[in-house]
Amino acid sequence: MKKPNKFIRNFCIIAHIDHGKSTLADRIMELTGQVSERDMEDQLLDSMDIERERGITIKLTPVRMFYSADDGNEYIFNLIDTPGHVDFTYEVSRSLAACEGAVLVVDASQGIEAQTLANVYLALENDLEILPVINKIDLPSARPEEAKKEIEEVIGLDASYAPLVSAKEGINIKEILEDIVKYFPAPDGDLDAPLKALIFDSYYDNYKGVILFVRVKDGTVKKGDKIKTFRSDKVYEVTEVGVFAPGLYEKNGLFAGEVGYIAASIKSIQDVAVGDTVINAENRAEEPLPGYKKVQPVVFCGIYPLDGSKFGDLKDALIKLQLNDASLVFEPDNSVALGFGFRCGFLGLLHMEIIQERIEREFNLDIITTAPSVSYKVVKTDGTELFIDNPSHLPSQAEIERMEEPIVKVDIYSPPDYLGAIMDLCRDKRGVFKEMTYLDANRVQLIYEMPLNEIIFEFFDSVKSRTRGYASFDYELIGYRPSKLVKLDILLNGDPCDALSMIVHEDSAYNRGRTLCENLKDAIPRQLFEIPVQAAIGGKIIARETVKAMRKDVLAKCYGGDITRKKKLLEKQKEGKKRMRTIGSVEVPSEVFMQILKTNKD
Amino acid sequence: MAGIYVHIPFCKSKCSYCDFTSFPDKLCYAESYMACVYREMSFRRKELKDYTFDTLYIGGGTPSVIDESYIGMLVASARKNFNLAKNAEITIEINPGTVTADKIAFYKKVGINRFSVGLQSAVDSQLEDIGRIHTAQDFKDCAALLRGENFNADVLIGLKGQTADDVVYTINYAAEAGASHISMYALTPEDGTPIYTDYLNGELPDSDEVAALYDAGYKRLKELGFIRYEVSNFCKRGKESRHNMNYWKRGEYIGFGVSASSCIKNVRFTNTFDLDEYFKCIFTDHLPVINSEEIDTDGQKFEFIMLALRTAQGLDAFEYKKLFGTDFFKEYKTALEKTARYLDIEGDSVHIKDEYLFVQNSIIIEFMQS
Asked: pTM for the complete prediction?
C-alpha cells in the first residue's frame, strides 16, 4: 500500500451568506499566487452571473493552488467552494465528501447564523477537521471575542486559536494558510489500489462532453484509461484529465488524494450520476465509495415554455441543468391552460428562483411558471395514500378521507425589537410557538412549527420587511400533519384555469380567494369584453372581481406619414400578445402566474 | 388613385399638443422654401409622368400664414410638373384668424376647392389652454367666408377638463357654421410636446373618459346627419375627403417639403425633418429623402387590412384578390374566426362592427402574420 502525497490539503469553506466566503477565497488564491492581483476580478469562484449579482454561491467551483509553507515544504491546496444557502445543503454535502477539512468563516459582528450551523454539523458528520476563522475584524462593530465565545458555546469547538482576519483588507490571511497545513490532515487512500474516484459535480461541455469533477480516493487515472461508473455498464476511454487552476488545466494523470476532472467523451448524462464512483473498467474496484443521501424536493411548480413549440428546448435545458444539479427533479406535465410543460421539484424557494433564472438566461427561453406548491399527502376513502404536488391532480372532495400537509420547524434569529412583529406574522401563517431563547442582548432565537405552504407564500419577504432586514430564518422539514385543506379554483370568464388553482387551508381560503381575484383584476389587461374573475371552492363562488371591457384602443390619426408608425405600434402590441396565454377566451400575461402570489399585505 | 401632399412647415405659434414639423419663427424663409418645393416637384416630374393625380393636399403647419401668391404658384407648379386630374380635389389647411375674404377668393381662383379649418374646440378657455391663437368667434368669421364651400372643421377630444357637453357644443358650433365634414380626433399626447406634461400629471381625461367623449360626439354627429366613414372622420353624404380615402385604400402618394412622406410602387420614403438640410439637398440637386423602405408582400397585405379596417366600408375582398391574387377569407381563416364577433361580413365586404371601431387595434393585430 502506497500513501497519497502528504503535501495535499483538500478543504472547503463554510460560511453564512454575506460573511465573506468568496472574498476570503479570492484572498487565498491571491496569496498563493494563483492569480496575479492585476488579473483579479472580484469573486473569482462565483462565475455564474446570478452568483455575482446575488452575492451567493450556488455551484461548487474547485480550484488548485500551491503554497510554500513556513516549514519549507510546498503544499497543494484544493479549495472546493460551497454554497451557503440552506436550499443548497445537498450541494454542500457533496463538496464535503471530497475534503478533509473545512474553514468555518464567522462574521465578527454577527456571530454564527442558523444556516451555517446546519453545514457545520454536516461537516462534523463527514469527519472533517474544522478551522474556525473570525472575519471582518476591520469593521467598527466587530466583536471577535464574543464571536469566539459563541462558536465554543453553540458548536462546542475550541475557537481560542481561531485566526482573526479581514478578507476584504487582506489581514492575517497567511495565518489561515499555515493553520490549514498544520490542522488539516493529508488525504488518506492507496495509490496502488484500483481506481476509485467520487463524482462530486459535473457539467456539459460542447466540445469535451460531460466533464466529471472528481476526488480520487484510491489509485490513478490517466488519458487512455478505460473507465466506467459503478452504477452503469457503459465503458468510456478517458480523453483528458486535469486539475482546476481555476479553469480546466490538463495533466498527465490524477492520483489518489487529488481533486480534478475527467473528460471521456461522455454524451449520455444519465450514465454519470453525481455521487457515483468512477472505477477502472479493466481493474475494477469491488466496492463503491459511499454516495450521498438523495434529497427530497419540497417545493414544486409548473414550468412551461411561453412558446408552446419550445417544449423540446425546455426539456433539453432541464436535462442540462440537472446534470450538475441533481437535486432538481422534473417530469412532463400537461395543463389545460398552459399546454405541455414540466412539473419541477426544488429544495426551496431560492433554488426554484435560481433554476427559473438560469433557464431564461443560460438557455434563452421564455418560460411561464405557476404558483409554487408543496407536496400534500392525501388519504382516500378507499384507504389508499398518495402525494399530490399539483393542485389540479387532487381527487374530488368526495374521494378524500383526509389530507396532510408538510410541517417545518422554523428558526428565526432577530434583534429583540422585532419580536412582536415576527410573532404576529407567524400567528398569521398558522405557526405554533415552540421556544424562545435570548442568545445575547441583541439576538433572540424563536422556534416555530409551521406549515410549509405558508412559508412558500411570501414568508421570506414578510420577515425581512417587518424586521427591516435584521432577522434571518432557516427551516427544516419535520413531517406531515392532518389539516383542513381545500382546493381553491380560479375562473376567468366562467372557465376554470387549472394553472391558477391552489391548495389552501380552509380558514384562509376566503381571504386568499379575494386577494387572488383583486390581484388578477389588476394583472389581466382589459380586453374587448368584460371578464368576471372568480374564486371558487368546490363549485361555490367565494369572491368575484371584474376586468372592465376596453373602450379605446385606436390611433386617432392615420395619414400618409402615420402609416409606418401605426404599423410599428401594432407590431409592438402584437409582440406583447405573444407573452400572453389564452385561457378559454381570456388572454393572460405570462407573469401573472407568479405575480398573483403577492398578498399586498406588507 | 394617387395623391400629392405638400407640407408647409410654418405657423404663427406652436400649439401645445402639436407634434408636426413646423417652425413658428422661420416665416421669413417662406419664399425660399416654396421655391425649393417647386424645384423638388420638378425632380420627380419624369419618374411620375405616367401618373394621374386625383388630389392635392396642402397641409402644415399653417399653409394660410404664407402669402397666398406662393400657394397659387404651388398649384401651378403641381399642374406643370404632373398630370393633375381636371376634377382633382385640392385642399388647403387654414387657421381662423389667418385668412381674409381676398385670400379665400384667391385660393378659389387658383383651383382650391376644399378647405380644412382648425377649430379644435368652441370653448374659448380650452382654445387658450392648448395654445390656439384664435377664438370660437374667429372660427365663425372664417366659416362665414367659406359659406357654400366644401370645408372641414377639426375637433379635438380629450382636452383638459373637457366634458361631453363641450364636445356636443363644439360639434353643433361647427355644423351651424356650415362645415360639410368634421374630423374628431382623440388628442394623442406626444413625448416632447408641452401637453405631455399635463398627461404625465394625470390632468388629461383617461382612455375611458375619452371614449365617453367620443361616444357623445359620435351620437351628436349622427343626429346632425354626418356619416362616420372612418374612425375619426365624419361628413355629409358625398363629402368624404378623397385625399384621405386614398391613404386608407393604400393608394400611392407623393409628398413634397420637409417631413413629407410618400408611397410609390410599394416603397415608403420620408423627407428630412430639418429645414436647413432640406434647403441644402434641393440647392445641390438632391432628393431630400432620409429613409426609404420597400414593403414586402406580407407588409403590403397587412397595411391594406389595417388601413381598410379603419373605415366604415371596411375591406373589399375582391379588391384584395385583385391586388394580391389570393383569397382573403382563406388566407385569414384563423384571424377571421377569432374576431368573428367583432366583424360584419357581407359578401366580399368585411368591416369592424360600429361599436368596436374605437377599439380596433386589438382586432387588427389578429391579422398580422407572425
From this structure: 0.70
